[in-house]
């Protein structure tokens, strides 16, 4: 089974790439989805978050206030590190379980969307890495205009990540997302064809 990691800085388009590949039948797992699973009501993850940050990070229905927690931790690096200490091991364990299930099913090619792939040093766990790349200006516009974040919050989130330029040389493939959605889809499908061919060779 060939394992591919999809990464990219915030608002680069990595989730869009993941959706395109999933639509084409590729098993894809998202770190964001795993983070949600790791912090569902009743889980040790949510209990640990509540113990670390207090009951104010919960919504009235007992679920995690993800937006409120995001605003909190991106104002304080120490709090962000504490949250990562809680979630990252749990996310990694869930991802490993998912990979094992896909291997049992005989999936020839799978993909995992991991925003902090290089920051966490996880690139060695994969056969190939795909960096979805857009300029800082483009990502800023998407965060503020499309996602509705405030300018200060958008700036803090962008500054918290490793500069995208530092990741370019580390990635196996770079998919530029500076144009239209049609252009991104064409590039995504072309890269998928290449990876499927690699996966077929890996299994031969």
List the helices and strands and how they pair.
Blueprint (H helix, E strand, L loop, with lengths): L1 E6 L6 H10 L4 E3 H8 L5 H10 L12 H8 L3 H29 L3 E5 L14 E6 L2 H11 L4 H10 L3 H4 L5 E4 L4 H23 L1
Parallel strand pairs: 1-3, 1-4, 2-3, 4-5
Helix pairs in contact: 2-5, 3-5, 6-7
What can you see in these coordinates?
The protein is of the alpha/beta class and 204 residues long. It has helices at 14-23, 31-38, 44-53, 66-73, 77-105, 136-146, 151-160, 164-167, 181-203; strands at residues 2-7, 28-30, 109-113, 128-133, 173-176. The longest helix has 29 residues, at 77-105. 28% of the residues are buried.
Structure described in brief:
The protein has 204 residues and is α/β, with parallel strands linked by helices. It has helices at 14-23, 31-38, 44-53, 66-73, 77-105, 136-146, 151-160, 164-167, 181-203; strands at 2-7, 28-30, 109-113, 128-133, 173-176.
Order of helices and strands: EHEHHHHEEHHHEH
Q: What is the gyration radius calculated from CA atoms?
A: 18 Å
| Widest beta sheet: strand line-up | 2-3-1-4-5
Number of helices: 9
**Which stretches of 5+ consecutive residues score pLDDT under 50?**
none
| Integer average pLDDT | 95
Question: What is the overall shape?
Answer: globular
Structural class: alpha/beta
Q: Whole-Å distance between the termini?
A: 11 Å
The biggest beta sheet reads:
5 strands, parallel
Number of strands: 5
Oligomerization state: single chain
- How large is the share of residues in beta strands? 5-15%
* Fraction in helix: 55-70%
